[in-house]
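Appendix B. Raw example, untouched.
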Amino acid sequence: QVQLVESGGGSVQSGGSLRLSCVTSGYAYISACMAWFRQVPGKEREGVASIFSDGSTSYTESAKGRFTISKDNAKNTLFLQMNSLKPEDTAMYYCATAPLGLLGVYCHRRRLPDFTRWGQGTQVTVSS
């Protein structure tokens, strides 16, 4: 059974940092396309960052320069380093994977229907 388990969320003050992790199990390999999403109650889930097997990464505008997505293939783990956090970053953060065969250009569009496996989420709260 494929599972994605996030950790690393918490409460920090504005300007602080957090590092989220997502461990993937049940795969013999880490998915070619992985991404982080976030959701605030009452709003649509939005893509924050994505990483493809060729090493390319992409970020939503608000995350550029502050967040870094990376992965450790040997440990089947996806990371999201978040620096200079702002109150508007407060959300539940989810990692997700797309099926093999999704091209990089589509991976980096971070369309919800393209991502078929999701973790349970980890809460990030940033206070001012």
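End of appendix B.
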